Amino acid sequence: MTSQHPAQSTPAPHASPRSARQLRKSGQAANPGSPRNPVAAPTDTVAEQLGLHPGQSVELLKELHILTREGKLNQDSRRKLKQVNHLLQFIEPLLQQVLDAQGDVTLADHGAGKSYLGFMLYDRFFSQRSVGHVYGIETRTELVERSRQLAQRLGFARMGFLPLSVQASMTSTELPARIDVVTALHACDTATDDAIAFGLAKQARHLVLVPCCQAEVAGVLRKHKALTLSKTPLSELWRHPLHTREFGSQITNVLRCLQLEAHGYSVTVTELVGWEHSMKNELILATKVGAGKHSARERLTQVLQELNLQELTQRFGL
After folding, report:
1. Around 78, how many Cα atoms within 13 Å sit in the side-chain half-sphere?
2. Are 80 and 280 contacting, i.e. CB atoms less than 8 angstroms apart?
3. Are 132 and 145 a contacting pair, CB within 8 Å?
């Protein structure tokens, strides 16, 4: 209920409970003298309402079209922002760990697309420090050029964007010989495998991967389904087309984890966000801990043979 005042009294200094609720929903501050004429909320108020990290730039989110020019979020953008912000919570401690150990840190975002992740990482972590460099690697030249222009406009001097394939990125002189952290957010199908191959070639300390739309293994399972059905009752796990797709996606990430362990990484698999926000939700965190595990290499070989996936031996680094 809104409060009532005598006709000649001055407006109350505080918004009524109802207008306060409206304020929280709209992200705007009401003008006490003109309740039907709201004005834009201060940036810190908008940031607080959106659940942003302290100091995170609202203007950057507008440039990335995550927020509208009025500072609003649609449902799709809200999910995207939640996913990326949650992923940053995993990445930032890894960056700090490397920085503490060697005084500098490099990160490469493979299959960067529009570089949401790279820009938001730079804004939250790198812009607060005088060292460190972010590289966005993307094959589509128009996206690379757009990201270059945005970084220049924002003054993000330690960001670079390269229009390179995975093979070219491994040998390019525009990249350092070693990259400390490699990320791949929603890298479709074999693009996650490309990021892993790049990370291994660049001796990455950490890999942070959110795979997406894995179809290659499912295609091979489908091709050899008749032979596998005659070989093992376990083939019932993927006999039906829907199960073929789901099992193919699952086993793809299992093989990736074994590949990383075979190359000396400790691997953790967890959820990125709740399943209600995205079905593309598996997060693979890999940290280099020493020499490769022979047992992981053996297991990887055995799984490929058992499932008639031998033609993917090279794909998984054997």
Report:
1. 9
2. no
3. no
Q: Are 119 and 60 in contact (CB under 8 A)?
A: yes
Our measurement of the distance from residue 83's CA atom to the centroid of its chain's CA atoms, rounded to an integer in Å, reads 7
Task: Look at strands 34-40 and 28-31 and give their pairing.
Answer: antiparallel
Judge contact between 311 and 220, C-beta under 8 A. yes
**pLDDT 10s per residue in the chain (318 long)?**
444 444 444 444 444 444 444 433 344 444 444 444 434 445 555 566 666 777 778 888 888 888 888 777 777 777 778 888 888 999 999 999 999 999 999 999 999 989 999 999 999 999 999 999 999 999 999 999 999 999 999 999 999 999 998 889 999 999 999 999 999 987 676 888 999 999 999 999 999 999 877 788 889 999 888 888 888 888 898 899 999 999 998 999 999 999 999 999 999 999 886 544 445 678 999 999 999 899 999 999 999 999 999 999 988 876
Count of CA atoms in the C-beta half-sphere (13 A) of 110: 32
Residues 6+ apart with CB under 8 A from 59: none
Handedness of CA 230, 233, 238, 240 (dihedral sign): positive
List, in order, residues 6 or more apart from 110 with CB less than 8 Å away. 137, 166, 169, 182, 183, 184, 187, 191, 194, 195, 198, 199
Nearest CA among 180, 199, 158 for reference residue 105:
180
Cβ-proximal residues to 35 (8 Å cutoff; 6+ apart), any chain: 19
For residue 318, give every residue at least 6 positions away whose Cβ sits within 8 Å of its Cβ, in sequence order, or none: 297, 300, 301, 304
Q: Which residue, 198, 218, 220, 222, is CA-closest to 209?
A: 198
DSSP state letter for 217: H
User: Residue 209 CA to chain centroid, in angstroms?
Assistant: 7
Contact 188, 272 (CB under 8 A): no
The pair of three-digit structure tokens given for residue 234, joined into one six-digit string: 């376990």
What amino acid occupies position 203?
Q
